[in-house]
From TrEMBL:
NCBIfam families: matE. This is MATE family efflux transporter. It comes from the Bacteria. One of its GO terms (molecular function) is antiporter activity. It is found in: Cell inner membrane. InterPro entries: MATE_fam (IPR002528), MdtK-like (IPR048279), Membrane_Transporter-Flippase (IPR052031). The chain crosses the membrane at residues 59-83, 104-127, 147-168, 175-199, 205-229, 249-278, 298-321, 333-359, 371-392, 399-421, 427-460. Keywords: Cell membrane, Membrane, Transmembrane, Transmembrane helix, Transport.
Length: 477
Protein backbone atom coordinates (compact mmCIF):
# COMPACT_ATOMS: atom_id res chain seq x y z
CA UNK A 1 0.00 0.00 0.00
CA UNK A 2 1.56 3.30 -1.07
CA UNK A 3 1.65 6.26 1.23
CA UNK A 4 -1.01 8.83 0.38
CA UNK A 5 0.28 12.28 -0.45
CA UNK A 6 -0.14 14.72 2.41
CA UNK A 7 -3.02 17.10 1.75
CA UNK A 8 -2.03 20.74 1.26
CA UNK A 9 -2.54 23.02 4.28
CA UNK A 10 -5.99 24.55 4.51
CA UNK A 11 -6.30 28.12 3.30
CA UNK A 12 -6.90 30.77 5.91
CA UNK A 13 -10.30 32.46 5.29
CA UNK A 14 -8.56 35.79 4.69
CA UNK A 15 -6.34 34.23 2.01
CA UNK A 16 -9.34 32.50 0.42
CA UNK A 17 -11.15 35.84 0.07
CA UNK A 18 -8.18 37.27 -1.83
CA UNK A 19 -8.43 34.37 -4.27
CA UNK A 20 -12.19 34.11 -4.66
CA UNK A 21 -14.12 37.23 -3.58
CA UNK A 22 -15.39 39.73 -6.22
CA UNK A 23 -12.52 42.06 -7.07
CA UNK A 24 -14.01 45.56 -7.03
CA UNK A 25 -15.83 45.14 -3.67
CA UNK A 26 -12.71 43.51 -2.23
CA UNK A 27 -10.44 46.34 -3.37
CA UNK A 28 -12.87 48.96 -2.10
CA UNK A 29 -13.33 47.16 1.21
CA UNK A 30 -9.59 46.84 1.79
CA UNK A 31 -8.51 50.06 0.12
CA UNK A 32 -11.02 52.70 1.24
CA UNK A 33 -10.06 52.59 4.95
CA UNK A 34 -6.42 52.56 3.85
CA UNK A 35 -6.90 55.64 1.69
CA UNK A 36 -8.64 57.53 4.47
CA UNK A 37 -6.16 56.60 7.18
CA UNK A 38 -2.99 56.97 5.10
CA UNK A 39 -4.37 60.25 3.83
CA UNK A 40 -4.75 61.31 7.44
CA UNK A 41 -1.14 60.29 8.08
CA UNK A 42 0.06 62.36 5.14
CA UNK A 43 -2.12 65.22 6.36
CA UNK A 44 -0.30 65.06 9.68
CA UNK A 45 2.93 65.77 7.81
CA UNK A 46 1.25 68.72 6.15
CA UNK A 47 0.11 69.97 9.55
CA UNK A 48 3.72 69.79 10.69
CA UNK A 49 4.67 71.84 7.63
CA UNK A 50 1.98 74.36 8.53
CA UNK A 51 3.42 74.81 12.01
CA UNK A 52 7.00 74.96 10.73
CA UNK A 53 5.87 77.62 8.25
CA UNK A 54 5.09 79.81 11.29
CA UNK A 55 8.83 79.81 12.04
CA UNK A 56 9.57 81.66 8.78
CA UNK A 57 10.76 81.14 5.22
CA UNK A 58 14.21 79.86 6.31
CA UNK A 59 12.63 77.11 8.41
CA UNK A 60 10.27 76.15 5.60
CA UNK A 61 13.13 76.12 3.08
CA UNK A 62 15.42 74.08 5.34
CA UNK A 63 12.82 71.38 5.90
CA UNK A 64 12.05 71.39 2.16
CA UNK A 65 15.70 70.46 1.48
CA UNK A 66 15.48 67.44 3.79
CA UNK A 67 12.01 66.37 2.76
CA UNK A 68 12.96 64.48 -0.45
CA UNK A 69 15.50 62.45 1.51
CA UNK A 70 13.00 61.68 4.28
CA UNK A 71 10.47 60.64 1.67
CA UNK A 72 13.11 58.49 -0.02
CA UNK A 73 13.47 56.60 3.24
CA UNK A 74 9.71 56.44 3.77
CA UNK A 75 9.03 55.18 0.27
CA UNK A 76 11.89 52.66 0.34
CA UNK A 77 10.86 51.25 3.71
CA UNK A 78 7.11 51.17 3.04
CA UNK A 79 6.87 50.94 -0.74
CA UNK A 80 10.06 49.31 -2.08
CA UNK A 81 11.44 46.91 0.53
CA UNK A 82 8.05 46.98 2.26
CA UNK A 83 6.40 45.97 -0.99
CA UNK A 84 8.93 43.16 -1.36
CA UNK A 85 8.00 41.97 2.13
CA UNK A 86 4.25 42.08 1.43
CA UNK A 87 4.72 40.37 -1.94
CA UNK A 88 6.83 37.57 -0.44
CA UNK A 89 4.39 36.96 2.39
CA UNK A 90 1.37 37.02 0.04
CA UNK A 91 2.95 34.63 -2.46
CA UNK A 92 3.98 32.25 0.33
CA UNK A 93 0.44 32.20 1.73
CA UNK A 94 -1.08 31.79 -1.75
CA UNK A 95 1.18 28.76 -2.32
CA UNK A 96 0.24 27.44 1.18
CA UNK A 97 3.79 27.79 2.53
CA UNK A 98 2.80 28.95 6.01
CA UNK A 99 6.17 28.21 7.63
CA UNK A 100 7.95 30.36 5.06
CA UNK A 101 5.48 33.19 5.64
CA UNK A 102 6.20 33.04 9.39
CA UNK A 103 9.96 33.08 8.82
CA UNK A 104 9.69 35.97 6.35
CA UNK A 105 8.47 38.24 9.16
CA UNK A 106 11.72 37.68 11.05
CA UNK A 107 13.83 38.29 7.98
CA UNK A 108 11.86 41.47 7.27
CA UNK A 109 12.65 42.85 10.74
CA UNK A 110 16.35 42.04 10.33
CA UNK A 111 16.55 43.77 6.96
CA UNK A 112 14.79 46.85 8.33
CA UNK A 113 17.38 47.27 11.08
CA UNK A 114 20.24 46.98 8.58
CA UNK A 115 18.70 49.50 6.18
CA UNK A 116 17.79 51.88 9.00
CA UNK A 117 21.38 51.98 10.26
CA UNK A 118 22.59 52.54 6.70
CA UNK A 119 20.35 55.59 6.31
CA UNK A 120 21.52 56.98 9.65
CA UNK A 121 25.16 56.66 8.58
CA UNK A 122 24.53 58.13 5.12
CA UNK A 123 22.73 61.18 6.52
CA UNK A 124 25.45 61.75 9.11
CA UNK A 125 28.30 61.48 6.60
CA UNK A 126 26.80 63.03 3.48
CA UNK A 127 23.83 65.14 4.54
CA UNK A 128 25.52 68.52 4.60
CA UNK A 129 27.15 68.08 1.19
CA UNK A 130 23.83 67.01 -0.32
CA UNK A 131 21.86 69.94 1.12
CA UNK A 132 24.52 72.40 -0.08
CA UNK A 133 24.32 70.84 -3.53
CA UNK A 134 20.55 71.38 -3.51
CA UNK A 135 21.02 75.10 -2.91
CA UNK A 136 21.07 75.32 0.89
CA UNK A 137 23.28 77.85 2.64
CA UNK A 138 23.23 80.12 5.68
CA UNK A 139 20.19 79.82 7.95
CA UNK A 140 18.37 77.50 5.53
CA UNK A 141 21.26 75.03 5.65
CA UNK A 142 21.42 75.13 9.46
CA UNK A 143 17.71 74.32 9.70
CA UNK A 144 18.18 71.44 7.26
CA UNK A 145 21.05 69.97 9.27
CA UNK A 146 19.11 70.21 12.53
CA UNK A 147 15.97 68.58 11.14
CA UNK A 148 17.98 65.92 9.28
CA UNK A 149 20.06 65.04 12.35
CA UNK A 150 17.00 64.35 14.46
CA UNK A 151 14.97 62.44 11.86
CA UNK A 152 17.76 60.16 10.72
CA UNK A 153 18.93 59.42 14.24
CA UNK A 154 15.73 57.39 14.52
CA UNK A 155 15.77 55.86 11.03
CA UNK A 156 15.66 52.30 12.43
CA UNK A 157 12.28 53.04 14.03
CA UNK A 158 10.82 54.19 10.71
CA UNK A 159 12.13 51.10 8.92
CA UNK A 160 10.90 48.70 11.62
CA UNK A 161 7.43 50.25 11.65
CA UNK A 162 7.03 49.95 7.88
CA UNK A 163 8.48 46.42 7.76
CA UNK A 164 6.07 45.10 10.38
CA UNK A 165 3.14 46.89 8.75
CA UNK A 166 4.13 45.33 5.40
CA UNK A 167 4.12 41.85 6.94
CA UNK A 168 0.58 42.38 8.20
CA UNK A 169 -0.59 43.86 4.87
CA UNK A 170 0.87 40.88 3.03
CA UNK A 171 -1.69 38.68 4.80
CA UNK A 172 -4.52 40.83 3.40
CA UNK A 173 -5.10 42.56 6.74
CA UNK A 174 -5.26 46.28 6.08
CA UNK A 175 -7.24 47.08 9.23
CA UNK A 176 -4.54 46.71 11.88
CA UNK A 177 -1.91 48.93 10.15
CA UNK A 178 -4.70 51.42 9.45
CA UNK A 179 -5.79 51.52 13.10
CA UNK A 180 -2.20 51.93 14.29
CA UNK A 181 -1.68 54.75 11.80
CA UNK A 182 -4.92 56.46 12.73
CA UNK A 183 -4.24 56.43 16.47
CA UNK A 184 -0.66 57.55 15.94
CA UNK A 185 -1.77 60.41 13.69
CA UNK A 186 -4.29 61.56 16.28
CA UNK A 187 -1.49 61.70 18.85
CA UNK A 188 0.93 63.40 16.45
CA UNK A 189 -1.30 66.35 15.63
CA UNK A 190 -1.13 67.93 19.13
CA UNK A 191 2.34 66.54 19.91
CA UNK A 192 4.05 68.23 16.95
CA UNK A 193 3.15 71.86 17.82
CA UNK A 194 3.73 71.12 21.50
CA UNK A 195 7.35 70.18 20.83
CA UNK A 196 7.92 72.80 18.12
CA UNK A 197 6.66 75.79 20.13
CA UNK A 198 6.90 74.47 23.70
CA UNK A 199 4.37 74.83 26.49
CA UNK A 200 4.81 75.35 30.21
CA UNK A 201 7.96 73.54 31.36
CA UNK A 202 8.51 72.09 27.87
CA UNK A 203 11.04 74.18 25.91
CA UNK A 204 10.42 75.22 22.30
CA UNK A 205 12.53 72.89 20.14
CA UNK A 206 11.71 74.45 16.75
CA UNK A 207 12.12 72.15 13.76
CA UNK A 208 13.81 69.57 16.01
CA UNK A 209 10.53 69.26 17.88
CA UNK A 210 8.70 68.34 14.68
CA UNK A 211 11.25 65.60 13.98
CA UNK A 212 11.07 64.30 17.56
CA UNK A 213 7.27 64.11 17.43
CA UNK A 214 7.56 62.05 14.23
CA UNK A 215 9.98 59.59 15.87
CA UNK A 216 7.73 59.16 18.91
CA UNK A 217 4.89 58.28 16.55
CA UNK A 218 6.98 55.57 14.89
CA UNK A 219 8.17 54.22 18.23
CA UNK A 220 4.63 53.74 19.48
CA UNK A 221 3.48 52.21 16.19
CA UNK A 222 6.40 49.77 16.07
CA UNK A 223 5.68 48.49 19.58
CA UNK A 224 1.99 48.06 18.76
CA UNK A 225 2.63 46.10 15.53
CA UNK A 226 5.26 43.92 17.22
CA UNK A 227 2.78 43.07 19.97
CA UNK A 228 0.10 42.20 17.40
CA UNK A 229 2.36 39.80 15.49
CA UNK A 230 3.61 38.17 18.70
CA UNK A 231 0.10 37.78 20.15
CA UNK A 232 -0.96 35.06 17.69
CA UNK A 233 -3.82 37.10 16.24
CA UNK A 234 -2.17 37.43 12.83
CA UNK A 235 -2.28 34.92 9.95
CA UNK A 236 1.52 35.18 10.02
CA UNK A 237 3.01 34.16 13.36
CA UNK A 238 6.73 34.96 13.53
CA UNK A 239 8.92 32.35 15.16
CA UNK A 240 10.12 33.91 18.39
CA UNK A 241 12.57 31.23 19.57
CA UNK A 242 15.44 32.32 17.39
CA UNK A 243 16.29 33.51 13.92
CA UNK A 244 17.60 30.96 11.41
CA UNK A 245 18.85 32.94 8.44
CA UNK A 246 17.74 31.61 5.09
CA UNK A 247 19.33 33.01 1.98
CA UNK A 248 16.34 32.14 -0.20
CA UNK A 249 13.93 34.17 1.95
CA UNK A 250 16.24 37.20 2.07
CA UNK A 251 16.67 37.07 -1.70
CA UNK A 252 12.92 36.69 -2.23
CA UNK A 253 12.31 39.96 -0.38
CA UNK A 254 15.27 41.74 -1.95
CA UNK A 255 14.56 40.56 -5.50
CA UNK A 256 11.37 42.61 -5.49
CA UNK A 257 12.46 45.19 -2.93
CA UNK A 258 15.76 46.10 -4.57
CA UNK A 259 14.10 46.68 -7.93
CA UNK A 260 11.50 48.78 -6.14
CA UNK A 261 14.28 50.70 -4.42
CA UNK A 262 15.64 51.75 -7.83
CA UNK A 263 12.21 53.10 -8.71
CA UNK A 264 11.92 54.87 -5.36
CA UNK A 265 15.33 56.47 -5.74
CA UNK A 266 14.37 57.67 -9.22
CA UNK A 267 11.17 59.26 -7.87
CA UNK A 268 12.92 61.12 -5.09
CA UNK A 269 15.96 62.10 -7.11
CA UNK A 270 13.58 63.69 -9.62
CA UNK A 271 12.13 65.79 -6.78
CA UNK A 272 15.58 66.55 -5.36
CA UNK A 273 16.90 67.63 -8.77
CA UNK A 274 13.93 69.93 -9.25
CA UNK A 275 14.55 71.33 -5.76
CA UNK A 276 18.11 72.06 -6.81
CA UNK A 277 16.89 73.78 -9.98
CA UNK A 278 14.51 75.85 -7.86
CA UNK A 279 17.45 76.74 -5.62
CA UNK A 280 18.90 78.76 -8.50
CA UNK A 281 16.01 81.19 -7.92
CA UNK A 282 16.53 81.69 -4.17
CA UNK A 283 15.17 80.50 -0.81
CA UNK A 284 11.58 81.51 -1.58
CA UNK A 285 11.58 79.35 -4.73
CA UNK A 286 12.94 76.38 -2.76
CA UNK A 287 10.27 76.85 -0.09
CA UNK A 288 7.51 77.34 -2.66
CA UNK A 289 8.39 74.33 -4.77
CA UNK A 290 9.10 72.12 -1.73
CA UNK A 291 5.76 72.99 -0.17
CA UNK A 292 3.82 72.48 -3.40
CA UNK A 293 5.59 69.18 -4.12
CA UNK A 294 4.32 67.85 -0.81
CA UNK A 295 0.98 67.48 -2.54
CA UNK A 296 2.63 65.10 -5.00
CA UNK A 297 4.04 63.16 -2.07
CA UNK A 298 0.56 63.17 -0.52
CA UNK A 299 -0.54 61.07 -3.50
CA UNK A 300 1.87 58.29 -2.51
CA UNK A 301 0.02 57.20 0.66
CA UNK A 302 -3.33 57.83 -1.02
CA UNK A 303 -2.48 55.57 -3.97
CA UNK A 304 -0.85 53.11 -1.57
CA UNK A 305 -4.26 52.83 0.05
CA UNK A 306 -5.23 50.74 -2.98
CA UNK A 307 -1.69 49.65 -3.85
CA UNK A 308 -1.20 47.83 -0.53
CA UNK A 309 -4.25 45.58 -1.03
CA UNK A 310 -3.26 45.14 -4.67
CA UNK A 311 0.15 43.76 -3.66
CA UNK A 312 -1.60 41.22 -1.45
CA UNK A 313 -4.27 40.26 -4.03
CA UNK A 314 -1.91 40.03 -7.01
CA UNK A 315 0.78 38.25 -4.98
CA UNK A 316 -1.66 35.70 -3.57
CA UNK A 317 -3.19 35.08 -7.01
CA UNK A 318 0.23 34.67 -8.61
CA UNK A 319 1.26 32.25 -5.85
CA UNK A 320 -1.90 30.24 -6.51
CA UNK A 321 -1.44 30.34 -10.30
CA UNK A 322 -4.48 32.57 -10.94
CA UNK A 323 -2.88 34.90 -13.51
CA UNK A 324 -6.10 36.07 -15.11
CA UNK A 325 -7.46 37.25 -11.76
CA UNK A 326 -4.15 39.01 -11.03
CA UNK A 327 -4.51 41.03 -14.24
CA UNK A 328 -8.15 41.85 -13.59
CA UNK A 329 -7.29 43.09 -10.10
CA UNK A 330 -4.48 45.21 -11.53
CA UNK A 331 -6.64 47.11 -14.02
CA UNK A 332 -9.40 47.59 -11.45
CA UNK A 333 -6.91 49.16 -9.05
CA UNK A 334 -5.35 51.22 -11.85
CA UNK A 335 -8.69 52.81 -12.71
CA UNK A 336 -9.38 53.67 -9.06
CA UNK A 337 -5.91 55.17 -8.55
CA UNK A 338 -6.03 57.27 -11.71
CA UNK A 339 -9.39 58.80 -10.77
CA UNK A 340 -8.25 59.52 -7.21
CA UNK A 341 -4.91 61.11 -8.17
CA UNK A 342 -6.35 63.09 -11.08
CA UNK A 343 -9.08 64.47 -8.83
CA UNK A 344 -6.46 65.78 -6.40
CA UNK A 345 -4.44 67.24 -9.27
CA UNK A 346 -7.37 69.06 -10.82
CA UNK A 347 -8.33 70.57 -7.47
CA UNK A 348 -4.76 71.78 -7.00
CA UNK A 349 -4.75 73.23 -10.50
CA UNK A 350 -7.98 75.11 -9.85
CA UNK A 351 -7.02 76.45 -6.41
CA UNK A 352 -3.21 76.66 -6.17
CA UNK A 353 -3.11 79.90 -4.16
CA UNK A 354 -5.51 78.49 -1.58
CA UNK A 355 -3.19 75.52 -1.04
CA UNK A 356 0.01 77.55 -0.85
CA UNK A 357 -1.54 80.18 1.37
CA UNK A 358 -2.05 77.56 4.06
CA UNK A 359 1.69 77.33 4.64
CA UNK A 360 3.19 80.76 3.97
CA UNK A 361 2.03 84.35 3.45
CA UNK A 362 5.18 85.19 1.47
CA UNK A 363 4.12 86.22 -2.09
CA UNK A 364 7.25 84.78 -3.71
CA UNK A 365 6.72 81.39 -2.01
CA UNK A 366 3.07 81.37 -3.10
CA UNK A 367 3.95 82.35 -6.67
CA UNK A 368 6.55 79.59 -7.11
CA UNK A 369 4.34 76.89 -5.63
CA UNK A 370 1.25 78.00 -7.55
CA UNK A 371 3.16 77.89 -10.83
CA UNK A 372 4.16 74.28 -10.14
CA UNK A 373 0.60 73.22 -9.27
CA UNK A 374 -0.91 74.85 -12.36
CA UNK A 375 1.55 73.13 -14.69
CA UNK A 376 2.01 69.72 -13.05
CA UNK A 377 -1.32 69.18 -11.25
CA UNK A 378 -3.25 68.12 -14.40
CA UNK A 379 -0.81 65.19 -14.83
CA UNK A 380 -1.16 63.77 -11.32
CA UNK A 381 -3.49 61.05 -12.62
CA UNK A 382 -0.62 59.57 -14.65
CA UNK A 383 1.58 59.59 -11.55
CA UNK A 384 -1.13 57.67 -9.69
CA UNK A 385 -1.48 55.25 -12.60
CA UNK A 386 2.24 54.50 -12.78
CA UNK A 387 2.51 54.18 -9.01
CA UNK A 388 -0.36 51.72 -8.58
CA UNK A 389 0.95 49.59 -11.46
CA UNK A 390 4.30 49.57 -9.69
CA UNK A 391 2.59 48.16 -6.58
CA UNK A 392 0.73 45.57 -8.65
CA UNK A 393 4.02 44.56 -10.27
CA UNK A 394 5.50 44.08 -6.81
CA UNK A 395 2.76 41.58 -6.08
CA UNK A 396 3.51 39.81 -9.36
CA UNK A 397 7.24 39.86 -8.64
CA UNK A 398 7.83 41.47 -12.08
CA UNK A 399 9.18 45.00 -11.68
CA UNK A 400 11.39 45.56 -14.71
CA UNK A 401 9.07 47.80 -16.74
CA UNK A 402 7.66 49.91 -13.89
CA UNK A 403 11.24 50.55 -12.74
CA UNK A 404 12.34 51.48 -16.27
CA UNK A 405 9.34 53.79 -16.56
CA UNK A 406 10.39 55.61 -13.40
CA UNK A 407 13.97 55.90 -14.60
CA UNK A 408 12.62 57.44 -17.82
CA UNK A 409 10.63 59.85 -15.65
CA UNK A 410 13.84 60.89 -13.87
CA UNK A 411 15.74 61.37 -17.14
CA UNK A 412 12.98 63.47 -18.69
CA UNK A 413 12.56 65.63 -15.56
CA UNK A 414 16.31 66.14 -15.04
CA UNK A 415 17.27 66.70 -18.67
CA UNK A 416 14.22 68.81 -19.44
CA UNK A 417 14.74 70.96 -16.36
CA UNK A 418 18.42 71.50 -17.21
CA UNK A 419 17.55 72.49 -20.76
CA UNK A 420 14.81 74.82 -19.47
CA UNK A 421 17.31 76.69 -17.30
CA UNK A 422 19.93 76.72 -20.05
CA UNK A 423 17.46 78.16 -22.57
CA UNK A 424 16.10 80.75 -20.14
CA UNK A 425 12.67 79.14 -19.61
CA UNK A 426 13.01 79.51 -15.82
CA UNK A 427 10.84 77.71 -13.28
CA UNK A 428 8.00 77.33 -15.78
CA UNK A 429 10.25 75.24 -18.03
CA UNK A 430 11.48 73.14 -15.10
CA UNK A 431 7.91 72.38 -14.03
CA UNK A 432 6.76 71.67 -17.60
CA UNK A 433 9.49 69.03 -17.84
CA UNK A 434 8.18 67.43 -14.66
CA UNK A 435 4.66 67.32 -16.10
CA UNK A 436 5.93 65.59 -19.24
CA UNK A 437 7.88 63.15 -17.06
CA UNK A 438 4.75 62.13 -15.12
CA UNK A 439 2.86 61.57 -18.37
CA UNK A 440 5.60 59.28 -19.67
CA UNK A 441 5.78 57.39 -16.38
CA UNK A 442 2.10 56.46 -16.37
CA UNK A 443 1.74 55.72 -20.07
CA UNK A 444 4.87 53.57 -20.31
CA UNK A 445 3.95 51.51 -17.22
CA UNK A 446 0.42 50.86 -18.47
CA UNK A 447 1.53 50.02 -22.01
CA UNK A 448 4.14 47.54 -20.78
CA UNK A 449 1.76 45.57 -18.56
CA UNK A 450 -1.00 45.66 -21.18
CA UNK A 451 1.56 44.33 -23.66
CA UNK A 452 2.33 41.26 -21.55
CA UNK A 453 5.47 42.36 -19.66
CA UNK A 454 4.60 40.16 -16.67
CA UNK A 455 4.36 36.94 -18.66
CA UNK A 456 6.98 37.08 -21.38
CA UNK A 457 8.61 39.27 -24.03
CA UNK A 458 6.89 42.57 -24.68
CA UNK A 459 4.78 42.69 -27.82
CA UNK A 460 3.26 45.78 -29.43
CA UNK A 461 0.31 45.72 -29.59
CA UNK A 462 -1.14 42.69 -27.80
CA UNK A 463 -4.86 42.28 -27.29
CA UNK A 464 -6.11 41.01 -23.95
CA UNK A 465 -7.66 37.86 -25.47
CA UNK A 466 -4.37 36.96 -27.12
CA UNK A 467 -2.53 37.45 -23.86
CA UNK A 468 -4.98 35.20 -22.02
CA UNK A 469 -4.64 32.52 -24.70
CA UNK A 470 -0.91 32.68 -24.23
CA UNK A 471 -1.42 32.13 -20.50
CA UNK A 472 -3.71 29.21 -21.35
CA UNK A 473 -6.51 30.87 -19.43
CA UNK A 474 -10.04 30.50 -20.80
CA UNK A 475 -11.61 33.77 -21.93
CA UNK A 476 -14.61 35.04 -20.04
CA UNK A 477 -17.94 33.85 -21.47
Amino acid sequence: MSDAAAPPPALDPRTRRLLEAPLLPTLLRLGTPNVLVLGAQAAAGLIETWFIGKLGVDALGGVALVFPVVMLMQMMSAGAIGGGISSSVARALGARRRDDADALAQHAALLSVVFGLAFTAAALLGGEALYRRMGGDGAVLQVALTYSGWVFAGAVLIWLFNALASVVRGTGNMAVPAIVTCVGTAALVPLSPLLIFGWGPLPALGVAGGALALLLYYLGGTLWLAWYLASGRSVVRPLLRGLHLRRDLLLDILRVGAAGAVSTVATNVAIAVATGYAGAHGAAAIAGYGTAARLEYLLVPLVFGFGGPLVAIVGTCMGAGQRRRALQATWTGAALAFVLAEGVGLLATAFPVAWMGLFSPDPDVIAAGSLYLRLVGPFYGFFGLGLVLYFASQGAGRLLWPVLANVVRLLVAATGGWLALRWGAGLAGVFAAQALALLGYGVLSAAAIAGGAWFGPLGWPRRTDALLRRLQVPAAP
